[in-house]
Design a protein that fits this description.
It is built from 17 helices and 22 strands. By secondary structure, the chain is of the alpha/beta class. It has two domains: 185 residues, 3-Layer(aba) Sandwich (Rossmann fold), CATH 3.40.50.300; 236 residues, Rossmann fold (3-Layer(aba) Sandwich). The strands form five sheets. Strands 6-7-8-3-9-10 form a six-stranded mixed β-sheet, with helices on both faces. A six-stranded mixed β-sheet has the order 16-19-20-13-21-22, sandwiched between helices. Strands 2-1-4-5 form a four-stranded antiparallel β-sheet, covered by helices on one side.
Length: 496
């Protein structure tokens, strides 16, 4: 085909005897958005790192415009017009937008070692111009939003005259408005003939912007289909290899016993006059738009950012919660929404991340009982089916879904009666989501009470007994999920 830009043929790659890719083939066309889907560990990142020159395949070949190319380093990949925008952006924070855009390609001044600042600004504006965005090119990168940093990375790829741009989870930290801005930039790239490989766990994005979809499973190519020929159910079946008609487990009937009462909880500028009850074995949803105050209420209940006024009662007894240690003493555990910023400690292993919240329980005097700590960690690893080579594996090496299960295990280590889960499935694949759903159902069946915060309304409706809808820091509605619809929840969530 005349519009065929890149072909990956029969690529294989293994690491330490583990097959990461097995006979994988893929092709890209000029000006298309090609979504690459699959569970964590399916081989997506390995394949993209091969295209970006970060890994070398054991066998197979890569062709650009019908000619075999070697991509043994990122520099070689860039020379061939392949640029990768990583999920973890790596700008130089104290350098300006213009300096980041032209890093390593700065226009020289009249004297050796001098940079022509005027030419630098002119070239930076030229690179940003096709994306129809206005960025302050003299502003340090640290002062930009994540979305603006993404735009800088796209403009940088254009500066390298990239014909293929790989985007790895580009919207994982973006708001809805910022995501739409990114989609506009992607549309500009398409019209310029740039092919985009788009990796995401968000299916609505796939159907919004993708032309074709390729699914990998266990390192193998499963299917490549036009996005228009798929729906969410069909895509899930391809990804996980089974029919998931029952993605959401049936919720257990909540008890009548009230385990938590909140009365008039207020923190100026965040939320005001929040009151509700939570019952034994209940999954209570907390819904609302970004900035509505959901996370702020959860943080107050766990003592991360206490309320200024109001009352919290646990089992009918007034509870003064000023810090997380207070919350844990009252039988409250929490998994925060920011897994990487406030959750995992990347430099530590799985065991130490898991046991961190209850380290004193593993000590005898000043000494940690290492065997006991390891035994408890292994018990939780088995109980939550955390896929790891062992409790000493670095947590940074785990998939997002398994990192999340470690965070849940940490929250459960103190045997809490009340568990707050803030966006527990954000950034994890559908298979891992199903496992988290099962954990939530199991906790409720054990009589634990769950407060679930999620931006995904199907999760709220399917997993929760009731949903509290927040709007601009206040409770706008309380709905029974047996009868609630997504449209009704959104109606109450929208600003007045």
């Amino acid at each position: 085909m005349s519009d065929l830009l890149l072909q990956v043929r029969h690529v294989n790659k293994s690491f330490d005897g583990t097959q990461a890719l097995a006979d994988v083939s893929l092709d890209l066309r000029v000006g298309e958005v090609h979504a690459l889907m699959g569970e964590n560990g399916a081989g997506k990142s390995t394949l993209m790192k091969i295209l970006a020159g970060l890994h070398t395949p054991d066998s197979g070949e890569i062709l650009l415009r019908g000619k075999t190319v070697s991509l043994r380093t990122p520099a070689q990949a860039l020379r061939h017009g392949i640029a990768m925008i990583h999920q973890e952006l790596m700008p130089i924070p104290d350098m300006t937008v213009a300096e980041n855009l032209l890093l390593g390609r700065e226009p020289c001044g009249r004297f050796p070692g001098w940079i022509d600042r005027r030419a630098l600004r002119t070239e930076a504006n030229r690179l940003l111009s096709p994306l129809h965005v206005e960025l302050p090119i003299e502003r340090p990168m640290r002062n930009l939003s994540i979305a603006q940093m993404q735009i800088v990375e796209i403009a940088k790829a254009l500066g390298h005259e990239a014909r293929i741009v790989i985007m790895d989870e580009p919207t994982s930290a973006l708001s809805e408005r910022e995501t739409q801005s990114l989609f506009v930039a992607i549309d500009v790239l398409k019209r310029r003939g740039v092919a985009i490989v788009y990796i995401t766990h968000k299916m609505d994005e796939v159907f919004a912007i993708a032309d074709r979809v390729t699914v990998l499973r266990d390192g193998c190519h499963v299917a490549t289909r036009p996005a228009a020929d798929l729906d969410a159910d069909a895509l899930i079946r391809l990804m996980v290899g089974r029919d998931l008609r029952e993605i959401f487990p049936k919720p257990c009937a909540a008890g009548k016993e009230i385990v938590l009462s909140v009365r008039g909880l207020t923190r100026a500028g965040a939320f005001r006059d929040i009151s509700f009850d939570l019952h034994r074995g209940e999954v209570l949803g907390l819904a609302g738009l970004m900035g509505a105050g959901r996370t702020e209420v959860a943080s107050a209940l766990f003592g991360l950012a206490p309320a200024k006024t109001g009352e919290i009662l646990v089992q009918g007894r007034p509870a003064r919660i000023r810090k997380p240690a207070d919350a844990m003493r009252w039988g409250i555990g929490m998994v925060t929404e920011d897994r990487k910023g406030q959750g995992i400690i990347p430099a530590m292993n799985v065991k130490h991340n898991l046991t961190l919240a209850a380290l004193a329980d593993f000590c005898r005097g000043p000494f940690i009982r290492r065997r006991y700590e390891s035994a408890v960690a292994e018990e939780h690893i088995r109980g939550l089916a955390i896929r790891t080579s062992g409790n000493r594996q670095a947590i940074a090496e785990l998939s997002g879904g398994n990192q999340q299960k470690v965070m849940i295990a940490r929250a459960l280590l103190t045997q809490p009666r009340i568990v707050i889960l803030d966006e527990p499935t954000r950034g994890i694949d559908i298979g891992a989501k199903v496992e988290v759903y099962a954990i939530i159902a199991r906790l409720a069946s054990e009589g634990r009470s769950i407060i679930l915060i999620s931006a995904e309304l199907p999760e709220i409706i399917s997993l929760c007994d009731r949903v509290l809808v927040m709007r601009q820091g206040t409770l706008a509605a309380e709905l029974d999920t047996a009868h609630a619809t997504q449209e009704e929840i959104l109606k109450h969530a929208m600003p007045v």
